[in-house]
Design goal:
Length: 416
């Protein structure tokens, strides 16, 4: 079969495809796999009755025909957009109107539209790029640009912290600033759990103003919700900022609902793209979220029910890792948010891809660090020594998974 250049690139193998194929394997045969790989959030017991009540309310109002039998606006479900606008204005003083907000079929769709709205070839034939100032960075950005070379990034600086931790810092002196169309940063970071500091964010906002480009803040794990952040951080919004939120990490990944907050011109452009690509977003997530907004304080729910769950998961996973990996050379990125641990095995004798395959043969799924290099101009050997591990799983899964990681890493250092 002969595909176009676009078709060949987007239908080929990718880190995102491998990750989702692994999640599909888990869904088909859950008893076979120890899943520390995908970004599936936990099923949080304290949130489940709220979702049950929201679905019951939708059913009792007779909303099923509207939910399943028609299309919403390509901007999204208007009652939810209006309620979210009022909530954010009351809470943050952002002075939004409903023209500032839209929903999409998930964050992945949001970034595909945004990266190609701003990046790519301009009318003069010049390639404009989306700058990813921190690396490693989210796996899902990797092939979101239609044009090859549409993403640009550079290696972050590494700070060693104590005997076991480390932390990345944005290397502002090395950022590739030619032909930048937009800046995008995940906060907190997927995969590392780093929360870009207020100082780093201030520098990025200043850089965006200097370059006269928008800054996209990927807050799928961050503020104002789901608020999975473990250290303080300030949220700043202006007309140059595009905030991307998600309902997934509240516990609704299957509803595929992303939220974009931006100036009305950007929302209008994205609404046109949404109509062309999707006709309209899935209304289920927005209707559940509206029911939550009408009955509860959504941000307070995230702070009181979602955040404590992940704080405890992170603490427990780090304790399990400490026990399992004792005696091996390893470090862990400071856990400042999101739902992952980022492990570094300095001098690992095999690549992270080989380690991934060996663990998969044991029935353990992780994500190799080399997949988290969107926009880097050349391979970074450091990423070949890293793994992303999800700690959203139950205790027994974490115990078994880290035991397997320790066995395979130990064998690799011993030459096995």
């Amino acid at each position: 079969m002969k595909f176009s250049e676009f078709g060949a690139r987007f239908s080929g193998r990718s880190g995102t495809r491998d990750l989702m194929d692994d999640l599909g394997a888990v869904a088909r045969e859950p008893s076979r796999w120890i899943n520390l790989g995908g970004g599936n959030p936990s099923v949080i017991p304290a949130m489940k009755p709220l979702f049950d009540d929201a679905l019951a309310a939708i059913t009792s109002r007779g909303d099923w025909p509207a939910l399943l039998g028609g299309y919403d606006s390509p901007q999204g479900y208007q009652p939810f957009i209006e309620a979210l606008t009022d909530d954010l204005n009351r809470r943050s003083g952002w002075n939004l109107t409903p023209r500032h907000i839209m929903t999409t079929p998930g964050s992945q769709a949001s970034f595909f539209m945004l990266f190609n709205l701003f990046g790519g070839y301009d009318p003069a034939g010049r390639l404009r790029r989306v700058l990813l100032p921190q690396s490693p960075e989210y796996i899902g950005y990797s092939q979101s640009g239609i044009a090859p070379g549409q993403l640009a990034s550079c290696r972050s600086r590494i700070e060693l912290v104590g005997e076991r931790q480390f932390r990345y810092h944005i290397d502002f002196g090395a950022l590739p600033l030619d032909d930048v169309a937009a800046i995008c940063v995940s906060r907190p970071s997927n995969p590392t759990g780093k929360l870009a500091s207020d100082e780093e964010m201030a520098q990025l906002y200043a850089l965006a103003r200097r370059l006269d480009v928008p800054i996209i803040v990927d807050s799928a794990y961050g503020l104002p919700f789901p608020g999975i952040t473990f250290v303080p951080g300030t949220v700043v919004r202006d007309d140059n900022t595009v905030f991307c939120l998600s309902l997934s990490k509240l516990g609704l990944p299957g509803a595929r609902t992303g939220i974009v907050i931006a100036n009305p011109d950007i929302i209008d452009a994205l609404t046109g793209m949404n109509a062309m690509l999707n006709l309209a977003p899935n209304p289920l997530g927005a209707r559940i979220a509206l029911a939550l907004l009408q009955q509860h304080d959504l941000v307070a729910l995230a702070r009181e029910r979602v955040l404590p769950h992940y704080v405890e998961r992170s603490r427990l996973a780090q304790a399990i890792a400490e026990r399992a990996l004792a005696g091996l050379p390893w470090r862990i990125h400071a856990s400042e948010g999101a739902i992952f641990l980022w492990l570094w095995f300095p001098g690992l004798p095999v690549s992270a891809e080989v380690l991934y395959e060996r663990l998969k043969a044991r029935g353990v799924l992780v994500i190799p660090g080399t997949y988290f290099a969107p926009g880097l101009p050349a391979p970074w050997p450091h990423l070949g020594e890293c793994l992303r591990v999800s700690y959203a799983q139950p205790d027994a899964v974490l115990e078994a998974g880290f035991a397997a990681i320790a066995a395979e890493v130990g064998a690799a250092y011993r030459g096995g």
